[in-house]
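Please fill in the sequence for the structure shown.

STRUCTURE ENCODING:
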């Protein structure tokens, strides 16, 4: 009976607890290599239209732990002073002179373009997703990830991970219907302040926005301890004081 059971498990594609744990460990390593647990960064977001026209945004960002991230717009001048805050699944946008911060959602975008708020204010993948399968593809692993809750921007991810660097090379993002929403490409691994290779460029395109693409270009990623008070609505107007 046992050999037959093993055959059935293999045919159905079920994953043993040990195999799932291996995939979870790999995903946690990916998160560690993508960004420190707590850090500050400077990055440029670039939206490119089919005509070739571009719009750029410069952001200063701080993150703490697994559920706190805040960003300040430094440029262009029309956006300077705006700030965003994410606490778990909750997101806000602060606009100088408007009053209290307003709620925003993960699928909206504070910069337009193909990146949405969940991409711009990304938490660690293992916080939001469970590993369903781990497939060995020679020089890469392919992880199939399922969202832990309906609050997550994408219902499912397919993540290709380079074995040598333990960094993603490509992530396909799907809706619950199975529709491909966008693809993220991780490029130009670079050593920042801690001798860990991290992607300096993340590019995205979408079959829903033909001819459009967006880039996230990191100029600096540095480990930093940030007080909890920074990640509050009251502190958003004062994010500039951290620089």
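FILLED IN BY: designer on duty
SEQUENCE:
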């Amino acid at each position: 009976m046992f050999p037959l059971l093993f055959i059935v498990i293999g045919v159905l594609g079920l994953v043993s607890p040990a195999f799932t744990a291996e995939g979870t460990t790999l995903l946690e390593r990916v998160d560690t290599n993508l960004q420190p647990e707590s850090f500050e960064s400077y990055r440029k977001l670039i939206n490119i239209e089919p005509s070739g026209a571009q719009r750029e945004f410069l952001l200063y960002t701080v993150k703490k732990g697994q559920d706190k991230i805040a960003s300040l717009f430094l440029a262009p001048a029309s956006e300077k002073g705006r700030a965003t805050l994410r606490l778990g699944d909750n997101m806000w946008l602060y606009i100088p002179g408007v009053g209290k911060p307003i709620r925003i959602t993960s699928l909206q975008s504070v910069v337009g373009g193909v990146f949405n708020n969940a991409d711009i204010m990304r938490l660690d993948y293992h916080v939001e997703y469970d590993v369903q399968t781990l497939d060995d593809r020679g020089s890469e692993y392919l992880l199939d990830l399922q969202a832990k809750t309906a609050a997550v921007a994408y219902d499912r991810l397919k993540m290709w991970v380079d074995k040598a660097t333990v960094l993603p090379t490509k992530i396909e993002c799907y809706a619950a219907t199975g529709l491909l929403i966008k693809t993220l490409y991780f490029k130009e691994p670079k050593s920042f302040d801690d001798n860990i290779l991290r992607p300096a460029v993340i590019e995205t395109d979408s079959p829903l926005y033909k001819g459009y693409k967006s880039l996230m270009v990191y100029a600096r990623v540095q480990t930093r301890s940030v007080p909890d008070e920074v990640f509050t609505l009251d502190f958003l107007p004062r994010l500039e004081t951290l620089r």
